[in-house]
Every structure is written in structure tokens, then in C-alpha cells.
Amino acid sequence: MIQETHLEGDYIKILPRNFMMLHHGPALQPRQGAKGGVAIILSPGMSKNWKHGGRIIHRGGISAEETTRIMSIDVEIKMLVKTKSKSKFKHVKVLLLTSYHPTSAYKESDAVNFNDQVPECSMKSKKTNILIMSRPKCFQWNKNK
Known about the structure:
This protein is α+β, with helices and mostly antiparallel strands. It has one domain (2-134). The protein has helices at 44-52, 108-123, and strands at residues 2-3, 11-14, 20-24, 38-42, 57-60, 70-82, 87-99, 130-134. The strands form 2 sheets. It has a 4-stranded antiparallel β-sheet. A hairpin with a 4-residue loop joins strand 6 and strand 7 (87-99). The two termini are 25 Å apart.
């Protein structure tokens, strides 16, 4: 999961060795000031899992100076579950979420607004999903919301 790509637009790109990059960025990057954009790079196997999970992408996080800062995807993973009597495969949904927190150069209100948007983005996915999130140290999750 990547923060601050400085790339423009929302797109999916096949990379060398069949890795896949899902990108969320502003329509235009400013010449000066804030830069934005986040991405998730998937291995060929995880790309298949994402496609099997419905190709779902949640984009959000428009904040200070119109930068894009939050993206998540739903990935379906097949896991082997062993019980005493038998083993079987179970499909588990995982939500991969990447975020790029506004730096200390931004107003406090921008940081608070961003912190409110991250849980909103994760709640777009089913509650049964497992959440895997990359986050900068400055992000604070408010469990009371």
C-alpha cells in the first residue's frame, strides 16, 4: 500500500511480472503545494483474489487542497480451515485500506476531517471483512465513533 504517489487520476495499471496497481489520485496534480494520491499494488495471485471479490474499490479522502488520500479494496481469500473431523476451504473477505494523512503543514481541521473519513471508508465494506490498513503514525482512530 502506497501513500503520496504524486500521480494523477483513478486507474488500474498492469505492471511488470503481472503485478497490478490500483491508483486513486486527483484529476490534476498542482505544480506547487499539496500533492496527493494513494495506490495498492497486488501480486498476480492477489489480483485474482481481488477480481474474485467483485473488483470493489472504495475511493475517498478528498481533503486539504483537493488531494486524494484514502482508498480501499475488497479481496476474497480462500483459506484452509481444519477441524477435528475434516478440512475444508472457506472464503474470507479482507479489506485493504491505504491512507495518506495530511502533514503538520495543514490546519488541525484538515487532520480532524481526514481522521473522520478513514472509518467512513472502512464502513463501506461488510462488517464481516477483516481490515488490513496502512497508516501513518499521526493517524488516531477514535473508537467511540
